[in-house]
């Protein structure tokens, strides 16, 4: 069975995408949140980033050709912006840490 044929992989991908979309929509109102609302938003973003890292690690560790192609495509797309996947995650963490410091 291929990596993308797994029902678990399909469900997690769908859930990650839906959760990301919801947070991005909610993020448009971030400036209107009170301190507690901002903290909840940041916590949810951190949780989503952790889930995404795990999901991407599954791709990297898989021997499935399509999973490896997906990893390569991500690397290629990010390289157009001059960054690696690790740098992308690092920058997201920097942003979330800055957001945390601004609400304290």
TrEMBL record:
<protein>
    <recommendedName>
        <fullName>DUF1825 domain-containing protein</fullName>
    </recommendedName>
</protein>
<dbReference type="InterPro" id="IPR014954">
    <property type="entry name" value="DUF1825"/>
</dbReference>
<dbReference type="Pfam" id="PF08855">
    <property type="entry name" value="DUF1825"/>
</dbReference>
């Amino acid at each position: 069975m291929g990596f993308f044929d797994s029902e678990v992989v399909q469900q997690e991908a769908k859930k990650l995408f839906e959760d990301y979309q919801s947070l991005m929509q909610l993020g448009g109102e971030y400036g209107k949140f009170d301190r507690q609302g901002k903290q909840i938003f940041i916590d949810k973003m951190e949780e989503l980033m952790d889930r995404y890292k795990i999901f991407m690690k599954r791709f990297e560790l898989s021997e499935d050709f399509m999973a490896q192609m997906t990893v390569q495509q991500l690397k290629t797309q990010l390289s157009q912006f001059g960054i690696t996947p690790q740098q992308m995650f690092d920058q997201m963490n920097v942003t979330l840490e800055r957001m945390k410091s601004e609400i304290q």
